[in-house]
Design a protein that fits this description.
Strand order of the largest sheet: 1-2-3-4-5-6-7-8
Mean pLDDT: 96
Bound molecules: nickel (II) ion
Helix content: 40-55%
Radius of gyration: 17 Å
Strand content: 15-25%
Structural class: alpha/beta
C-alpha cells in the first residue's frame, strides 16, 4: 500500500529536531510520498532544499520521496512585491517543484488586508497558468470569494482545495471547475458532520488526503504536533465513510495525487 501526504509543512522548524524519525515513521505507515508546501519565499526555498535532499535517488535507508510547492500564503500576502513574484517564478521551475501554493484567501485571521490577499492570489493564479502548474488553494472563511476569483481568472483548473472546509454545494462547484478536494485531520473529528457529508458525496476519484502538519493532527493525536504518518488516520476514516477498504482508498487517492502533481510512479 502506498499513501501520499499531499500537504505537509515538513520543512517547518517544528520538525528540525527529529525530521529523520518523522520520515521513518511516515515510511513505516506506508506514506511513501510527501508534498512539502511553501507559504512565503523563505519557506518555499526551504521546501525545495528539503525535497532535493529526499528526491528518491538517495541510498539506504529508503524513505519517502519529498516534493515541494512554492507560493505565498494569504497571511503573508502583504510582503509580496514584483521582485519577489519574479523570484517565485524562478523557484517554480526548480526540479522538485510540483505546484504553486499554498495560495488563496484567509478572511478568518485577516493577517493581510483582504484587497491585498485578492491581488496576490490572482497574481499567483496567473503565474500558475502561465507555467502550466497545478495550484494548491487555501480557503478559510472565504468560500464565495475564492470560487469567484478562480472563475474570473480562468476555467478548467488543475488544482486542489486543500484542507477542504466547505459544504457539499461548494464541493460540487469546485469539482465542476476541475478541482480535486483534499481532506485533512478534521475529517476524523467526531462532530465533523459537514466534512463527513462532503467525503460521502465526492467520488474517491476526486479526493486527495493530507495532514497539513504540523497543524491539525487527526484523532487520536488531536492537539499534538501532526506529522505525515498520521495521514493514514485520514485514509482509515475515509475508508469507513466510503464503506470500502483502506487499500482501495490508498490506491485511488495516490493515483489522483500522481496525476494532479505529475509525479513519477512511487514504490
Ligand atoms: Ni498548509
Amino acid at each position: 500500500m502506498i499513501l501520499i501526504d499531499t500537504h505537509a509543512h515538513l520543512h517547518d522548524r517544528r520538525f528540525a529536531a527529529d525530521r529523520d524519525e518523522v520520515l521513518a515513521r511516515a515510511m513505516a505507515a506506508d506514506v511513501q510520498g510527501i508534498i512539502t508546501v511553501g507559504t512565503d519565499l523563505e519557506s518555499s526555498k526551504k521546501a525545495i532544499a528539503l525535497a532535493s535532499r529526499h528526491s528518491g535517488n538517495a541510498i539506504e535507508p529508503r524513505g519517502p520521496v519529498v516534493y515541494a510547492t512554492v507560493g505565498v500564503h494569504p497571511h503573508d500576502a502583504s510582503k509580496l512585491n514584483p521582485e519577489m513574484l519574479a523570484e517565485l517564478e524562478r523557484l517554480a521551475s526548480e526540479k522538485p517543484v510540483v505546484a504553486i501554493g499554498e495560495i488563496g484567501l484567509d478572511l478568518y485571521r485577516n493577517l493581510s488586508p483582504p484587497a491585498v490577499q485578492e491581488k496576490v492570489f490572482v497574481e499567483q493564479l496567473e503565474l500558475a497558468r502561465r507555467l502550466d502548474k497545478p495550484v494548491v488553494i487555501h480557503d478559510r472563511d472565504a468560500h464565495t470569494q475564492v470560487l469567484s476569483l478562480l472563475r474570473q481568472v480562468g476555467k478548467d483548473w488543475q488544482g486542489v482545495l486543500h484542507c477542504f472546509s466547505g459544504d457539499e454545494e461548494m464541493a460540487r462547484q469546485a469539482m465542476s471547475m476541475g478541482f480535486l478536494i483534499s481532506l485533512a485531520g478534521p475529517l476524523t473529528f467526531e462532530n465533523a458532520h459537514r466534512l463527513q457529508a462532503v467525503a460521502r458525496l465526492v467520488p474517491l476519484e476526486r479526493l486527495l488526503i493530507e495532514t497539513d502538519c504540523p497543524y491539525l493532527a487527526p484523532e487520536p493525536y488531536r492537539g499534538k504536533r501532526n506529522e505525515p504518518a498520521y495521514v493514514r488516520q485520514v485514509a482509515v476514516r475515509l475508508a469507513e465513510l466510503k464503506n470500502t477498504r483502506l487499500e482501495h482508498v490508498a490506491q485511488v487517492t495516490t493515483d489522483n495525487a500522481v496525476r494532479l502533481f505529475r509525479l513519477p510512479p512511487l514504490g
